[in-house]
Design brief:
The chain is of the alpha+beta class. The chain folds into two domains: 33 residues, no CATH class; 119 residues, OmpA-like domain (60s Ribosomal Protein L30, Chain: A), CATH 3.30.1330. Helix content is 43%, strand content 14%. It contains five helices and four strands. The chain has a four-stranded mixed beta sheet. Strand 2, helix 4 and strand 3 form a beta-alpha-beta unit. The longest helix is centred in the C-terminal third of the chain and has 21 residues.
């Protein structure tokens, strides 16, 4: 009986968590796109993706990261007056100095990729936060993997 109750509760919770249907062309939730200002940070985050992730002690871009940056380059070409800052981040392991340097190398990796895709380097600044601004708090691989990132922020 208890298992049936737990199963029903789980189904109810999943139903309550259902998200809005996504627009096939943009990936945006239907009905929210009209409220997003084109060329804004929200537009970038919702319709393109504003972050890429890195492996442990890595600065190379995965195929998924390159795909996101390809979309960002297209978006930046569409909005030619937009300038951005690439934030480089690291997980909590390592010294402050090491992680600041690693975050900077990650941000520069993103900047260099965008430049290779035709985005003027003058439109892209970099900053490193090292381990100082975690996206996810915790000392687990799941948390660390979300903190090893480069985030594109509209200025």
């Amino acid at each position: 009986m208890r298992m049936k109750f737990l199963a029903l509760a789980a189904v109810a919770l999943l139903a309550a968590c259902e998200t809005a249907p996504k627009d096939a062309n943009t990936g945006a939730a239907t009905g929210t796109q009209s409220s997003i200002r084109p060329g804004s940070q929200e537009d970038l985050a919702v319709n393109v993706g504003d972050r890429v992730f890195f492996g442990l002690d890595r600065i190379d871009l995965s195929p998924e990261a390159r795909a996101t940056l390809d979309r960002q380059a297209t978006w930046l070409q569409t909005y030619g007056s937009v300038t951005v800052t690439i934030e480089g981040h690291a997980d909590e392991r390592g010294t402050r100095e090491y992680n600041l340097a690693l975050g900077e190398r990650r941000a520069n990796s993103v900047k260099n990729y965008l430049a290779a895709k035709g985005i003027s380097p003058n439109r892209v600044k970099v900053v490193s936060y090292g381990k100082e601004k975690p996206a996810v708090v915790g000392s687990t691989e799941a948390a660390w993997s979300q903190n090893r990132r480069g985030v594109t922020v509209v200025d």
